[in-house]
Each structure stands twice: as structure tokens, then as C-alpha cells.
Amino acid sequence: MTRKILKNTNPFTNPAEKVRLADLSELVPAVDLGSPNTTRGASRTLYLYAAGAPHLANFCKRIGINAFKLGITASSPEKRVAGLCAIQYAGLWGAVGARIEEMMVLEGADKWIQIPLRKPAIPIESAGSEGHRIRHFDRHIEFDVPPYVDDDLVNQALNSVFANRCLKRFIGSDNGQIRLRNAKIDARGWFHTLYPSTQSNQKDRLSAVQELFVFDARSEMAMISTAVQAMVDHLTRSVT
């Protein structure tokens, strides 16, 4: 695959000035994902992971926040992060709707690494049954959902429960726009991924990134765990 991209300058390196970290420690909103599930059956295991990369870290340093990718996979989280490197996830920057020729290539998009998601010291509460408690490991959170809960629904739930931590939502706010302008970053821009076509008669697909969130896993694991448990409680609830 040959990328027809003209600009090759990373807009996030060598910041001219530093911006202080804002208070972004508000709790996740209440979960509102529709009616509880009613079908019963065996469970399947999913894994929530977090990842960072140099180009995202440079961007965050410029505007004074911490942000990472959160993702859910049914396979190995390590393999999923390797996949992010292979496709250079979020490796293009430009206005939503712009042509690929107008995008800037961001160096470091092939160097995603998995970051720790360690169990918080403070226990979290769960409305769900013991069998649906989330399980913490050093670099991911493991949980079970019924087999009829498909990946799209789980990803929708993830985006819903972390909605107020969405990076795109933050940089679209007045505060975020000021930070972008202060850092001399195009306030209309956003991260994109180029997905290569799998068939000769199809074009490569340019997609705006959806799963970047503002958080610091070193100090906010209690919030993250509470949000994930709330999501799992909803997805595994049954009507008797």
C-alpha cells in the first residue's frame, strides 16, 4: 500500500510553551444503555486494555493532559496492541472529512505499548453477581459477558460509560480549543487511522479515531474500575 500524503511534519513535537493540567477528575456519568438483557446462556471472556504511543504522548504534553487508548478485545490484549502498531493507529492528523492527501503523518504511531491497569487499593462496589465481577491483572481487566452481547454493543457501552472522558469531546470544548490554539495546533484537527482495503476493488478507508480518553491510570484506577464494573453489571443483568 502506498500512502499519497503530502505533509510529513508532526505538529506535536517541540512545544513552544507548556500548559498546566486541568482538573479532569470528575466521575464517570451514570450508565444509560437501554433495557437490561433478557437472554440467558454461557459467558465469553473479554479484556479491557489501555495503550499509549509517542505521537499521542507528544500531543498530550503540548496541551497539558493525560490521554490513552482504551479498547476491548476477545483475543490477547498484547496481540491487539501489536495490531495497533501494524496499522499505525491514530497515525494521521487532519480535519474530519478532509482527504488523505491533506492529512499529516505522525511519527510514533507504530510504537504503541500497553500500559498498566493495576487493581485499585480501594475496593469497588458492584450491583452484579459474584460471577460477573471484573478481574484485575497487571496490564488489563478481564470480565465475562453473555454470548449474545456482541462486540459492537460492548464498545458502545465503553464509549457511553467513559463519555465525559472522551478526548475528542474535551478538545472540542472551550477549554480544549484554547489549549490547542495556545499550543499552535490546528483546532479543527483530529486523529485518524488509514485502514488498508482487503480487496482489490475497494479503496483504503480513512476513519476518525473513537477510543481515546482522558485519564491517568496511575491515580484513577478506582474510577476506571468502577466504570468498567458498572458497564459489566448492566451487560450481564437479566430480567427474572
Please, could you describe this protein's structure?
The protein is an alpha+beta fold. It has one domain. 25% of the residues lie in helices and 19% in strands. It has six helices and ten strands, in the order E-H-E-H-E-E-E-E-E-H-H-H-E-E-E-H. Strands 1, 2, 5, 6, 7 and 10 form a six-stranded antiparallel beta sheet that branches. Strands 4-3-8-9 form a four-stranded antiparallel beta sheet, with no helix packed on it. The radius of gyration is 19 Å and the shape is globular. The N terminus is likely disordered.
Primary descriptors:
10 strands; alpha+beta; 6-stranded antiparallel beta sheet; 4-stranded antiparallel beta sheet; 240 residues
Tally of alpha and pi helices: 6
What is the overall silhouette? globular
Major beta-sheet overview: 6 strands, antiparallel
Q: How many domain regions?
A: 1
Beta-strand residue fraction: 15-25%
Structural class: alpha+beta
How are the elements arranged and paired?
Blueprint: E1 44-52, H1 54-63, E2 67-73, H2 77-87, E3 92-95, E4 104-105, E5 113-114, E6 135-136, E7 141-145, H3 151-161, H4 167-171, H5 174-182, E8 189-195, E9 205-208, E10 212-214, H6 221-235
Helix pairs in contact: 3-6
